[in-house]
Structure prediction request, 365 residues.
Amino acid sequence: MSRHGKALVAMSGGIDSTITAVLLHEEGWEVVGVTMKTWDYATSGGSKKETGCCSLDSINDARQVAVKLGFHHFIVDIRDEFGDYVIDNFVDEYMAGRTPNPCVLCNTHIKWNSLLRRADMLDCQFIATGHYGIINELNGRKFITRARDEQKDQSYVLWGLSQECLNRTRMPLGVFTKQEVRQMAAERGWDELSKKAESYEICFVPDNDYRGFLRRRIEGLDDQVRGGHFVDTAGKILGKHEGYPFYTVGQRKGLGIALGEPMFVTEIRPDTNTVVLGREEELIRNQRSVGKINLMKYASVPESGLEAVTKVRYRDPGTFATLLPLGSDIRVEFHANVKGIAPGQSAVFYEGDDLIGGGIIQGSF
Prediction:
């Protein structure tokens, strides 16, 4: 009988989720491990061996940990719901001229909901993950604070978690550095695991070739989109491109066109199969609308505005901005110019290290 109760741990087979399970087991929780099968890469026609959280090797690694520590482990097949929601959205967003962030969508709408359903079925009080973040509470609201290890902090991809999800989630690794986690694995005899390489790829595009993935998903895509025009910001035709879904705002390399000076994608117009190119300074924006908002630390943004550091990419250091309500959206007015803001990506708002919330970047005003 456990000293505390039951905890459902999401186990990918990697070091972070393994140490999460180990720590809870050592604290006296009755751990139940679950590995989610989100994607079968063989069905995509990719050329590389399946890797990452969905591979057979990773599933076996997670199961071996459970066997060694003596707790139950289950495999949950969520390929249908993952594919219908995350992958379809991924394709639809590129076809709409936007740049999606599938990890945010998966966390928000698929993984956590699937885990909570299984936790209820197995009478587990909470779920635990190997994410690097710290869950705090203020005035009855739960929110995420950046992890102690700044290089591993994952708060940017967790902005969409609801209060219900946060109330039943634990992230034990947020207070540790990655090196400390590796040391914990080594000290407990998990030497091979402590040296295991990490994957930063999209799980269903493990070769990092999203263009090839789109081609495999949409029959005849090249015929549909090839031959559109590159134009400058004044509308002058500069040349032909390979198809608008194969470019993203802010892109400089791989354009396939030489213009005598560095040029960047500043806009994508799917209706006319047009990709707008401009100089680096033409990427600059100082405001954006953000939709599909989820707020954590506060229930709403006051009419008078709220000051926050806003990140528009995962590795973006962030820019001070004023957040203003705009119907159900938020208007972000940056205090300094920001380059390469891509519609479809996440804008995430911070107050110090605390995550206020986030949303999906829309267009300009």
Q: What stands out?
A: Residues 219-278 form a domain with the SH3 type barrels. fold (CATH 2.30.30.280).
